[in-house]
Amino acid sequence: METIKNYLEAMFSGLPNTPEVRKAKAELFQMMEDKYNELISEGKSENTAVGTVISEFGNLDELAEDLGLTREVNESRARESEMNSRFVTLDQARAYLSSKGRKSLCLALGVFLCITCVSWPIIFAESEGLIGVILMFVSIAVGVGLIVFSSFLTSEWKFLKYEPCRIDMATADAVNERRRAFEPVRALCVALGVILCIVCWLPNMLFTNALGLLAPALMFFLIGIGVFLIVYANNVYGGFMKILHLNDRSTMGGAYGDPNARPARYKNTAAETIVTIYWPMVTCIYLIVSFLTFSWGITWIIWPIAGVMYKVVMIACCDD
Prior knowledge:
Blueprint: H1 2-12, H2 19-41, H3 46-57, H4 60-67, H5 70-83, E1 86-87, H6 90-116, H7 119-123, H8 129-153, H9 159-162, E2 165-166, H10 169-198, H11 202-206, H12 209-244, H13 269-293, H14 296-299, H15 302-317
Parallel strand pairs: 1-2
Helix pairs in contact: 1-2, 2-3, 4-5, 6-8, 6-12, 10-12, 13-15
């Protein structure tokens, strides 16, 4: 029966996700199941029963009129011929997710190095200031290099963004299983990352004397680790959602993705750009204000304010 169910899913994947189509799908599945059980009761083998059921009920074009889906089937066929969507296999989906994982790690590490680069002049301020400056520029160079390199790790998968693609139910189930297994890891990383960004100012309050001179450096490392965890977890998770939302949302195949975790749809390109650069921009503002005022114990307030403003920006820029 699992083979019949998968075949039925493939038959209806391109049809619009409407109550009428869902009802017709349930009715056809019931008919296929009844026929299968009848053949099994007559002593037919499972393979023979499956083959007979598919040959008798497997042509949606012939069944469209009886199911009341003539218009939906014709529209679906016309849309498929116009779009000519590219089929993504399970092996391709797994390969993409592996590339996405490597990209996420490189990107998160690059962001970490760029954030923590200013810690080195602080650490070596009392001894070898030149070493601190050199290490700062080395961190920036390596960080930017990793960010640029990460963009090439998934370059072969650009067609997922620019071409119409589709997946079958088996691929969606496999990716969904991996996504669900990763969700606790993502939740832990994001929660810990947010906590580190919130408490990053504590070293400035707790440490005094000689340790107090290193407090700002420790603060940047806490921020860097927090941002690293958030960037890595969300980028890996984004890879799962990219695959799960390849199918047209208006079709039955679009329901393969998680309906409770829809990606944001930006109203325009400018809005997408703003959301993409928001946190790097906040980080730059924080560093500039902090270095100009040297009020490290106060400027941390920028982060909770930025968190509230981010929600406002998402509401203004995204259409869910």
